[in-house]
Amino acid sequence: MQIEHTSIHLEKIRFYAYHGVMPQENMVGTYFLVTLHIDTDYSQAVETDDLAGTVSYADIYNSVKEEMQMPSKLLEHVAGRIAKRLYLEFPSITGITVRVDKENPPMGAQCESCGIELSTKR
What we know:
The chain is of the alpha+beta class. 32% of the residues lie in helices and 34% in strands. A four-stranded antiparallel β-sheet has the order 1-2-3-4. The longest helix is centred in the last third of the chain and has 15 residues, at 75-89. The two termini are 27 Å apart.
């Protein structure tokens, strides 16, 4: 068997955080959803059933959780911090797509969420 591509996905992780440009967003906060698609070679784990041959999604979650706890004005900045940290902490990661959505954004319209997506390569 030839493996062509391997990736790890964490879908719509929900955090309560204080990101936003408007002062009330920094005081009251709201819910955010973070989705990650991470390219990494885990072909060794496919053969060995050993966690050492992959990246633990629990460890990824803990890193993202810490970044989400640090307020930023812009979601673009949050996504950039998340990507930089994951590259630093997990050397086997070769690409990351981070999506950050703000639930019920304060923009005077009925909107379930809005957000940004950042795709990067090492």
